Amino acid sequence: MTYVFGVGRRIAPVLLSLAVALTGAIAAQAKDTLTIDLVNEPATLDPQKQWNPDSYYVYRNIFDNMLTRDNDGEIVPQVATEWEQVSDTEVVFTLRDDIVFHDGEKLTADDVVYTIERITDPDFASPQLSQFNKIIKAEAIDDHTVKLTTDGSYPALLAQLVKLSIIPEHVASAMTPEEFNAHPVGSGPYALEAWNRGVDVVLKRNDDYWGDKGPFATVIFKGVPEAATRLANLQAGAADLVVTLDSDLATQLETSGKGKPLAVNTERVAYFALNSQQAPLDNPELRKAIGYAIDREGIVEGVLAGYPKVVDEMLSPAHFGYSGEIDGYAYDPDKAAEMIAAIGPDAEVEMQLATAPVYDQRVVQAVQQMLNDAGMNVSLKMTDMATWLKDQQSSNDVAPMLTFSRWSCACQDPDGIMYPLLHSSSNWSRVSDPEIDALLDEARSELDEEKRADLYRQVNEIAVDNAYILPLYQAAIIYGAAEALEWQPTSNESMFLNRMSWTE
């Protein structure tokens, strides 16, 4: 017995060491998988279809873009290593020669040309068409050189190319858009492993990636509509990163000691869209009354704990061209009520306010209450994000009358937000104003930055004067992260997995 006891005493430390090692191995294995809770599952994984945060978070890691931005917001190379403006309308790009798609085929200039021709084809009907339709020609000079020609000078070209994901011609041209959406092939740091509809999207690390490798072998994205559930998952260790927490949940997370909030003021502008092409919102007096009825400061300070910044124009301080000189509608509930009463029964018809789970419902409900307090009859219409996106891109005669939304183009340029929301040619726009159209078209071709900024200031003044669209605030986004996750959120809301890391 003494011998057995002695052996047991000698073995115990060994067993303890093995247990510690095993625990460490399990922990290391767990760190190989990153789980991210989104609000919804992606609407698409085809980067030339819908552009919305839950889709972009995922597919931006599957694809490389023509250009990208660093964490400081500066435009830097990605597929293109350098570029030269050879004339007012022509830019020549030199491409990397070591990029390989996930199926092993090399990325060449032909893929860039195909990508541009696909997204600018009106029959393809990309929701991003208005952001690329100034490009009228793309031609391959050789395997690694591309020349782009624009319809007139286009100062926003580089900013727009930041979000142009390059897709393989040999794959996409042999598939329907639906097939490519289900089985996307890119050249990014991660590749699609599985899209289990209604459950999760699983990405695997591309170990042959030309750039910085992803630190996680597997990344799982899940759609979790309830913010409180996302927070609970993070605190329980079922998620490592969660998106779109409100200020109350951020405070709860900060005091819990089970994770950390990461907040950044984005280029995203929260706004209230009015279908000015349909009665009764074709009456500018009613639109202005709505402007006076919304207490933006109250929403920012009372609901959002001061994270966002009130803006009076359809730009944020993160955009080029933000003036800070526009005066929006000051909160005046008495004036709003008087104007609505003067309009009469037309202002009292029931109107639906379109919303989706991705948006902070405290804000949406506050706006609804403010409008109803002023004498309107506003109800909420909640849909999933895919339906919301489809409704927003409908023709004016069937598009929602009222919409709370937030817009980001991930380009930090006015053309990426003001053109799609205010130009009459855009399927996102509920505005038809020839003066605005002319100014936006001119701004698209103005190379002088001072003159270009002034053109956008004029557009914003007209939009405010006519209450075509009501800017609310520069949105702040609050993420929740595991304590060990290192990541710097950026104003353009890009979730680059290969810019994250675990700390010990």
From TrEMBL:
Residues 1-30 form the signal peptide. The keyword Signal applies. Pfam families: SBP_bac_5. The keyword Protein transport does not apply. Its main location: periplasm. Keywords: Signal. SUPFAM superfamilies: Periplasmic binding protein-like II. PANTHER family: PERIPLASMIC BINDING COMPONENT OF ABC TRANSPORTER. InterPro entries: Peptide/Ni-bd (IPR030678), SBP_5 (IPR039424), SBP_5_dom (IPR000914). Belongs to the bacterial solute-binding protein 5 family. This is Peptide/nickel transport system substrate-binding protein. It is found in: Periplasm. Residues 74-427 form the Solute-binding protein family domain.
